[in-house]
Amino acid sequence: MNAAEIYKLSRLAIFWLSVTFGAVWVACWGVGVFIPSLITGKMPFLLQVDNPSTTVVFIADLLRSLTPILSLLVFIPINAMFMVLFERRSLALFTVRMGPNRHGFDGLAQTAADAVKLLFKEDITPRGADAFMFTLAPIIFFAPSIFGALPLLAAVTNNHDLFKVANLPTGIFYILAAASIPVVALVMAGWASNNKYSLVGGLRSAAQAISYEIPLVLSLVTMCLLAGTLDVVEIVEQQKGGILNWNILGGGALSGYDKLAPYWLNLVDTSFDTSAMFGQFYPVPWLSSIMAFVLVICTVLLFGLYLTGACAEINRIPFDLPEAESELVSGYNTEYSGIKFAIFFLAEFTNLFVVSSIATVMFLGGGDNPIPKWILDRLPLEPISNALGSLLSPLIKDLMFIDPATFWAAFWVIVKVYSIVFFAILVRGTLPRFRIDQLMDFGWKRLIPLALILFVVVVFARTWVVCHG
Amino acid sequence: MAEEKEKSIEKIVEAPPEIGRFGQFLKEHGIASEKLPDAAGGIEVISLDAKNLQSALKILRSSEETKLDLLITVSGVDSRQSGGTFDSVYHLWSYDNLNELVIKVKIKADEVEEDSLPAVPSITNMWPAANWHERETYDLVGIKYLGHPYPRRILNPWDWDGHPLRHDYVQIVDALNDKNPHSFR
Amino acid sequence: MSTEIKSTELKTDEMIINMGPQHPATHGVLRMLLTLDGEFVKHAEPVIGHLHRAQEWQGQNRTWFQYQALIDRVDYLSGMFTSWAMARSCEVLDECEVPERAEYLRVMVSEMNRISSHLLWLGTYLIDLGAMFGFPFYPFREREKLLDLFEEIAGQRMMFNYIRIGGVQRAPNDAWLKRLKAFTEEFEDRVDEYEAIVTENPIFLKRTKEIGILPLSLAKQYGVTGPSIRASGTDMDLRKTKPYSVYPKLEFDVHWLDKPEGGDTWDRYILRIREMRESNKIIKQCLDMLPTEGELSGKKQNAGLRVKAGEAFSSVESPRGILGCYVISDGKDKAIRFRWRNPSFCNLSVLSELLVGSPIADIMAIFGSVDVILPDVDR
Description:
The complex is a heterotrimer.
Chain A: H1 3-40, H2 54-94, H3 110-120, H4 131-156, H5 171-179, H6 182-192, H7 196-227, H8 232-238, H9 255-264, H10 274-281, H11 285-313, H12 325-328, H13 338-363, H14 373-378, H15 382-391, H16 393-398, H17 404-428, H18 436-461
Chain B: H1 2-13, H2 21-28, E1 34-39, E2 43-48, H3 53-62, E3 70-79, E4 85-93, E5 100-108, E6 119-121, H4 130-140, E7 144-146
Parallel strand pairs in B: 2-5, 6-7
Antiparallel strand pairs in B: 1-2, 3-4, 4-5
Chain C: E1 15-19, E2 31-37, E3 40-47, H1 55-61, H2 64-70, H3 79-94, H4 100-128, H5 137-154, E4 163-164, E5 167-168, H6 174-198, H7 202-208, H8 216-221, H9 227-230, H10 238-241, H11 265-289, E6 310-318, E7 321-329, E8 335-341, H12 343-349, H13 351-354, H14 360-370, H15 374-378
Helix pairs in contact in C: 3-4, 4-5, 4-11, 4-14, 5-6, 6-11, 11-14
């Protein structure tokens, strides 16, 4: 229908994604690999130092340990810029408009210009506002998104050494705890603004977050139950090997089919006795098959539940009541301007990114290739990867610039995360807003019972099927 | 020029003697009215005394025969130049039939005391719709409605001086200007 | 021991909020003084006048010819109707014949204007409901086409000054008529498209059903007219009940709902959608019946325009209700009194009753469904 606009949107997305992730990649490589290797003399073809002094080693270690946080600090602002532009252009596409297309080539620099404008705007503190709280609120709103994103880094980079900063055994709970702090900031902002609209917005966000955190957490708890662990890195490890292993399809209930499919499809030695292996995964054949099917339905529903709860958690349409424009002007951020508003804006999009990343890690297999391994093995990819490897060997081996495992993991994470982001934008472009009482009804009377029922069903169903955990 | 003016005024004031349908109806119910020249399109116009307004409207609205239950407007007209009166004009329609009636309550300008406004009884108790219309007439033409629940200006700012739709209105000081002594701005 | 149980009801303070005049959803500059108990409205008072431009004062201080160019601004979304109301009053007073061709053109452009006004209402109403992006822009796509047509025939996209005392300004050419015909042919599908997205949308139904119920008796007391009262159980539409112009020759239905207990906001929505379809039908018929030759105006359009002495009140059925114009003339170059009867003014006054007891979120849903244009209120 609108091929030209779709082409422009994809061009924009590819350009900005390359910029965003290129910058992060270069920064991480520079600080985490290049400089430490250089000063400790470990760079393959540059000057070699045999025994670096302890000071130099210490500096190198320090730089390495700073890499994760640096990557986030580089990534978040550029990414938010891209996401804002992406959202505006996508909405324009859905709504038969043009969207921002003037600044830079085809509007590529629009949000950069907006950001500059916001930074130079006067920072107004309204009369009668609690100045300290007023300033603190955006900071508290923004900071947890960084805390929350840190443990995810290792999960999305194929457990890369540099990013093993906080592989907590309670990883997902830590992330959820961090993700629930911003609500405090919204109430603070609403209260400190000395504005009735802000106050109502702040209180609404508190009520909403409390109601929707329960289904959100319950859905993740159920997934952890299937996985048998809380560690996000381990959850990603379990899901490796293609789409049939992902948590969204039964949390490993289909792993057996994944393993047996090549035999059934006569792709490999047919003399292999599959029944023993089948029995290993599905102890009571017919009941287990039904239960596997039930598990798949449950996890798909849980995924929907998670997305709904996450939408409410980060105040997006149809749950954007705390900043409902037609009712509360702009809710808690009505009185904010300049850099404080910019931080709110930044944090909102970062939160969207973080919840999408959690969804990717918990449900969509993290950085895993969606194509099952047995199909991948039969594709003629080896020559291509060999050719690429030899072509890029200076970058891979000498400069240690590219680590193929991490690269592909990052690539798939980007694809998955931005698919979820795009879905959120699509929802925003389609649905009207709930009313506050309907929102509460929906949360408490529909989502929470559903989450509990799914929890119980999963507990029973997984006893008949061998899942990841 | 002066002759012309008189001629046109005569044309407006000249009243035909016969009584109209609604005038007859009111007469049957013991309310005296005066017939005025029809409005264009043959719509009956009657004039009522201020004291009869409430009772006449009540009966015109509730009677099955007339059922004038749609208050179209309450307008104020400064006709001091043509008839020496302030008119409060009520356009009445019906939701269910085609009846139309214009009622005028004329207040003689001579009888209005210095520094006070011509007064007409409010009909807000019968028609909530009249509330805003009467406020607007008070605001723009300067007719006071006795018994109005909230007799304030509606379109102009509360500290505005004068009533702009009177023909002798002169805006002395710009009310939006700081120099206006009554303004708090 | 006393067995008396004290009331443990929690006592909370009421909050007074000024909604507007600078609020993104008040369709201009309405200020609503709300007394809130929690999220619920206990008392609502619309405060108007922020957009007062002394249109009636202009009427008695400008010549007839000057003033007829100004009145499109009274209701900027349906300028054709304000022009028409004034023109009708003056024509009745002046006993001037309007050529048939001009009448057809008037009906045609007015119905186009009704569609464009309802389209804008539809878009903004969905924005009021929180569908910030997405659907609201689709009605604007069609409205844009109508505005282009208006621009070509009247020289202006909103302040048309097309309908004049005695007739219309100019005749359309064939290309214009062809474009209008193309529009009418595709418009029905477009309305189907809107209905497919909106009418049965569960969130939309949840937000609009059973709120803002306007009982018939209350509506009559407040003099509510237009689609808002037709949703509450009368079939009052001036085009049928007191037919004017060439409407008797045209075939169309007046949609109304037999709901004396009161129509809700969804009823008002669906009536406007149906009205758009009817208007489209009327335009199609006008296109077929429009005389190709003939006078355009029964009166000379120049600065010497005069209207005979006397008084007249005439009205038209605008998208928002009965739009009337009360003129008193003494035959001179200026009127003695111009008085507008604006549908929005009357429809807005009922809001203080409609809003009581509804949550903040419903304020805009109810306010939007009554379809009020602030310049029309404040003049």
